[in-house]
Structure to design on (502 residues):
């Protein structure tokens, strides 16, 4: 049938876009994690001005649409400071910075949910605040953050479709390209949808496995 | 009572004051520890006992007051000196505060590695030794959530002792425990006292205090209002606030106040099981 041969022909091209999408999401999650953890720690334990600054960052990135941020950074800011990172690099950075705002709030909530005695116990043993945070607070807070983080992953994956607007060659852009030439919109977009669905499920399953593996013995499902 | 009357203090906390929320919750409190001293802080709830204890290792920074370790004054604005002080002054909390993500031996080993700079193997060896001393050699691999309250508190004691503290602070170490678990923790603490470990302990286990304390300090409204050996403060007809308080404490929970007045008291470790530690 004609439909299937169209999908079949377009599939390698779209699957290549899948690699780009995965790269975007993994890169953005990683960047968001690297920024989000220190941001959360600063917001909870840092001096007032630093904590305010983080608050402002979060407020900004949560308040503005991703699409606008992509245009703002790619066409505006990056050009202004002469940063040449290409569409994939720019998408990764913008998604990562947005994700940092959300991730920082996941980690902040987890840190604040820990009993105050944990930090006290670390300090009472002669550990510096930094050591106590690194070896006592974060290992526990990050475990608690996995479910929220899994949620952030699935949202970020779908936000990555927005990068199509910069011409980033990911799933959405490639599907759109093929569809506009072959006019087989329905089957092609269904295919793309199924790919997104598969990546979401794979990632969520992986994170759930991580959550099980990181579970602290003796805690039941509700406790940890 | 005190066999070390002439030794220089190993730790002095001088003239501590602290105002929180516009209220003076610590008002010019001092304490001096000599080798072998076991001082018991008692007093009604809200008297400032926990605050005083936490000022001594500077978990709460006092507004006024000085801390001396031996003949060295601690500048607690200096991070290195502050951490040094806390390393030398161990603390046991009412609700244990074990690191929930680490098994018993790792709980003990963590600070040995990060503060003392021991290798993992060295630290674990020391940790197992300390756990064995509190009778938990077999539980070294269990996590806090898998331990009973009494076992958790004993791990916490092992964790503090592993740092070779000069003084141990204990804030109501048995208050969060089920009555039948109080004895095992008190036994460990009494052994420590017998080995000459200097301790400052907040407790309402009066029989225990009478048996092990070299001095009792009675606190009220942020001040130490009475201070003396158990024999002085709890003697028959002593008419002290301390004795008043103890009698009320025991009346309240239906205990037999006369045991408090009894000559020397019973050094038994069977706690006043019904006594709620306010
Ligand atoms: N952070 C705080 N802000 C205001 N008041 C406090 C704070 N912490 C403790 N207090 C008050 O200080 C008093 C002494 O508390 P605490 O030292 O815990 O007493 P105790 O251990 O003798 O029961 C209490 O009345 C308590 O309400
Ligand atoms: Mg208290």
């Amino acid at each position: 049938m004609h439909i299937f041969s169209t999908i079949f022909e377009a599939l390698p091209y779209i699957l290549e876009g899948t690699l780009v999408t995965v790269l975007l999401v993994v890169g953005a999650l990683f960047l968001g994690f690297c920024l989000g953890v220190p941001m959360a720690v600063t917001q909870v334990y840092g001096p007032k001005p630093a904590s305010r600054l983080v608050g402002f960052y979060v407020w900004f990135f949560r308040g503005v649409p991703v699409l606008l941020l992509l245009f703002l950074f790619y066409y505006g800011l990056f050009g202004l400071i002469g940063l040449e990172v290409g569409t994939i690099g720019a998408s990764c950075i913008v998604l990562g910075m947005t994700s940092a705002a959300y991730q920082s709030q996941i980690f902040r909530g987890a840190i604040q949910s820990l009993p105050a005695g944990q930090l006290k116990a670390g300090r009472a043993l002669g550990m510096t605040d930094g050591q106590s945070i690194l070896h006592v607070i974060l290992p526990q807070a990050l475990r608690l953050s996995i479910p929220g983080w899994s949620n952030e992953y699935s949202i970020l994956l779908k936000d990555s479709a927005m990068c199509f607007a910069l011409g980033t060659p990911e799933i959405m852009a490639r599907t759109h390209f093929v569809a506009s030439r072959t006019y087989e919109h329905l089957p092609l977009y269904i295919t793309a949808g199924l790919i997104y669905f598969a990546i979401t499920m794979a990632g969520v399953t992986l994170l759930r496995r991580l959550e099980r593996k990181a579970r602290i013995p003796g805690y039941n499902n509700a406790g940890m | 009572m005190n066999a070390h009357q002439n030794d220089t203090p190993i730790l002095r906390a001088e003239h501590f004051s602290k105002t929180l929320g516009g209220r003076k919750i610590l008002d010019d409190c001092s304490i001096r520890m000599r080798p072998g001293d076991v001082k018991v802080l008692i007093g009604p709830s809200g008297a400032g006992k926990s605050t005083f204890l936490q000022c001594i290792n500077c978990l709460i920074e006092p507004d006024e007051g000085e801390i001396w370790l031996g003949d060295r004054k601690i500048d607690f604005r200096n991070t290195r000196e502050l951490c040094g002080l806390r390393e030398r002054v161990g603390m046991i909390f009412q609700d244990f505060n074990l690191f929930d993500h680490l098994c018993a031996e790792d709980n003990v080993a963590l600070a040995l590695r990060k503060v003392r700079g021991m290798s993992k193997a060295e630290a674990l060896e020391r940790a197992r030794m300390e756990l064995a001393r509190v009778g938990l050699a077999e539980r070294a691999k269990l996590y806090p959530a898998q331990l009973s309250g009494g076992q958790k508190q004993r791990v916490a004691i092992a964790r503090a002792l592993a740092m070779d503290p000069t003084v141990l602070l204990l804030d109501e170490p048995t208050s969060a425990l089920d009555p039948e678990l109080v004895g095992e923790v008190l036994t460990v603490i009494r052994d420590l006292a017998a080995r000459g470990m200097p301790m400052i302990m907040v407790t309402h286990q009066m029989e225990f205090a009478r048996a092990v304390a070299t001095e009792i300090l009675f606190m009220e409204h942020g001040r130490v209002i009475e201070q003396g050996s158990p024999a002085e403060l709890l003697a028959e007809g002593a008419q002290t606030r301390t004795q008043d308080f103890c009698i009320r404490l025991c009346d309240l929970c239906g205990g037999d106040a006369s045991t408090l007045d009894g000559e020397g008291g019973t050094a038994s470790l069977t706690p006043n099981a019904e006594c709620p530690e306010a």
Notes: The interface with chain A takes residues 57, 59, 79, 83-84, 86-88, 90-91, 93, 95-101, 103, 110-111, 114-115, 142-146, 156, 159-160, 163 of chain B (CB under 8 Å). Confidence is low (pLDDT under 50) at residues 1-5, 255-278 of chain B. The longest strand of chain B covers residues 23-33.
